[in-house]
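Weekly puzzle thread! Below is a chain. First person to post its structure in token form gets bragging rights.
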Amino acid sequence: MPQIETARIQALVDDLSIRCQFDAPLGPLTWYNVGGNAQCLAHPASQAQLGELVKRCHENAVPLRIIGSGANLLVREGTVPGVVVRLDDAAWNQIQVEGNIIRAGAGYGLMRLVAEAARLGLDGLAQVAGIPASVGGAIRMNAGGTYGDVGQAVKTVQVMSAAGQVYHRDRDDLVFGYRRTNITAPLILQAEFEFQETDSKELVKRVKEIYFYKTNSQPFSEKSAGCSFKNPPEDDANAQGRPAGMLIDQAGLKGHAIGSAMVSEVHANFIVADKKDARAEDVYRLMEHVQQVVADRFGVSLQREVIVWP
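Winning reply:
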């Protein structure tokens, strides 16, 4: 993707009072802690600021991306062109509780939300305990796992169009599938979750059990972006019902390394980069190698779950 003149971007944001960083490192904002820079990293503090920024980027053909918790993102070395928006201001990190409904900003941490709901005896998100994500990112990719997904509890989602217009998507209008939703708007601003009241002590216990199961079966102490690949579709005859991690393991790739990246010995669907000199390009090359080996060995085309920029 061609670079945009930095002066063009500065002209777009100069009068918006938005905190912006140019040539800003993105690696530290991801769980891999590796990778390139954002040409411009913007931190809007209000919906009005964000809406005007989005509108201007759209009208001037300046690429715009959103970064959440960085738990499912790999930023390759180099510069990500255009504007990267991070909703880390307090305005995007609030929750409101009204009976069995919790309204959460897009920047609010999913694990914090799960813990808070459990403490209040509100059952509906225990299934995503232990999944690192922001609320916005979790909804965008319908974060989930063995126990279920975040979409099960979503009531409404507030989104912003590329033109900066704000509107709501209700549950009846939303489709949540495996690691996807039908939300096409570029920004998710907040969401309402609907819960069922239950005994808080029992719910907290269940949340802890799910959390510890995940931490004991996955390489949480190592730098990764979670599962690297989606599980093959159920109707993939070549996969024979095997999840991505099993296929990678059976291909003999556990422990296989390229440069500073390695297929985890704990869970084969995790590619880790723990070395001091870790590079995003090594992770990317290893992902491609895993895809090629699994395709050659089993005839299964693994699709990346990790988002790769640019």
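Puzzle host: Confirmed. Bonus trivia for everyone else. The chain has three domains: 6-90, 93-216, 244-309.
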